[in-house]
């Protein structure tokens, strides 16, 4: 199978270049990550992140034939040759397919991704009704792989100011949580022309999410709550 | 101040909502216009249509909607792409002046009929 992979080592290379690879696959190699492991056997200078190899850790997010996704859950049989692999767009490249996620996690931390509840903690746990728990479905599953935020032009242009789809999905995850008491503060924090309203609803995030989540819907819900509290 | 990122202007919802509402108003006007539009088109028919009070009222709302809608849209474009604060402010002011001028001109044409 043929591959074209983005190669860049800032210590050695003047500028990035695409390098061609041809690998013979084992019949057991089903996913793109399997092929990348084979390529790495051939050329151990190729750098990429991977860990769980089953779509849970979110380490091996990359741009696959023009679309962001996780190498470990992308089927080789679905890919057109030569398979073009690039690092996630919009983030600084550290080396080859590895990007610097600092900005992405800064935005994630800015939405206070933890439960805020001033009540004394109960002996066992803070209970929720099944309906309240259902509200979190489609939100808590996010693995922070950054496929969505790095496919969002608004995040490309203003990564320092726009929270991005991943951060906003998580912001709504805590707004929607019945155990959280900081809804008003969270909405105040997001009512900002840059932090939330750079989203122009183009839905690249929904298209890219390897976990089939819908950040656009979460952003819509945040806007809906803002309207509800102000009219 | 070395490259500090400042956010937290605490606005945005009203503009976002206004853009949606003005969009609905413009669609409504377009539908009404397609129904009442003089056929065959003639100066007399055109004049008679715009002489009516309700049409002036609706057209004024249309011009106001276009003004607000275009302002929010253009400011969004400047906010997305123009990084330099001074340049962005200048472009925003220029946009306001241009749009207010156009709206005034449109009203003048409309009231003259």
Structure description:
The complex is a heterodimer of chains A (about 230) and B (about 110). Chain A is an alpha+beta fold. Chain A has eight helices and seven strands; from the N terminus they run ββαβββββααααααα. In chain A, the strands form two sheets. A five-stranded mixed sheet of chain A has the order 2-1-5-3-4, with no helix packed on it. In chain A, helix 2 (about 100-110) runs parallel beside helix 5 and helix 5 (about 165-175) packs across helix 8. The longest helix of chain A has 16 residues, at about 215-230. Chain A is elongated, with a radius of gyration of 20 Å. The mean pLDDT of chain A is about 95. Chain B has a single domain (about 10-110), classed as Fumarate reductase/succinate dehydrogenase, transmembrane subunit (3 helical TM bundles of succinate and fumarate reductases, Up-down Bundle), CATH 1.20.1300. Chain B has about 110 residues and is mainly α. In chain B, helix 1 packs across helix 3 (about 55-80).
């Amino acid at each position: 199978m043929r591959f074209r992979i983005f190669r860049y080592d800032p210590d050695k290379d003047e500028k990035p270049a695409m390098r061609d690879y041809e690998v013979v696959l084992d019949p057991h190699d089903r996913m793109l990550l399997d092929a990348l492991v084979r390529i790495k056997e051939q050329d151990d200078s190729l750098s990429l992140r991977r860990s769980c190899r089953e779509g849970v850790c979110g380490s091996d997010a990359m741009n696959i034939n023009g679309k962001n996704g996780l190498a470990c859950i992308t089927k080789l049989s679905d890919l057109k040759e030569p398979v073009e692999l690039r690092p996630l767009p919009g983030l600084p490249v550290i080396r080859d397919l590895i990007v610097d996620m600092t900005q992405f996690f800064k935005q994630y931390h800015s939405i206070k991704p933890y439960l805020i509840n001033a009540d004394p903690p109960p002996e066992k746990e803070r209970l929720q009704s099944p309906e309240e728990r259902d509200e979190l479905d489609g939100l808590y599953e996010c693995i922070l792989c950054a496929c969505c935020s790095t496919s969002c032009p608004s995040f490309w242009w203003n990564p320092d100011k726009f929270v991005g789809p991943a951060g906003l999905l998580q912001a709504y995850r805590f707004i929607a949580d019945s155990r959280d008491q900081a809804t008003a503060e969270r909405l105040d924090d997001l009512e900002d022309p840059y932090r939330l309203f750079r989203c122009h609803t183009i839905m690249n995030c929904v298209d890219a999410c390897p976990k089939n989540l819908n950040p656009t819907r979460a952003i819509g819900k945040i806007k809906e709550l803002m309207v509800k509290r102000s009219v | 101040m070395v490259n500090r990122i400042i956010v937290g202007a605490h606005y945005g919802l009203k503009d976002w909502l206004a853009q949606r509402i003005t969009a609905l108003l413009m669609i409504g006007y377009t539908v009404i216009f397609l129904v009442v539009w003089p056929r065959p088109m003639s100066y007399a028919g055109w004049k008679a249509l715009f002489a009516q009070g309700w049409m002036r009222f609706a057209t004024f709302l249309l011009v106001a909607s276009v003004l607000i809608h275009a302002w929010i849209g253009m400011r969004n474009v400047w906010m997305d792409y123009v990084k330099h604060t001074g340049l962005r402010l200048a472009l925003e002011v220029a946009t306001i002046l241009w749009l207010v001028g156009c709206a005034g001109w449109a009203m003048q044409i409309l009231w003259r009929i």
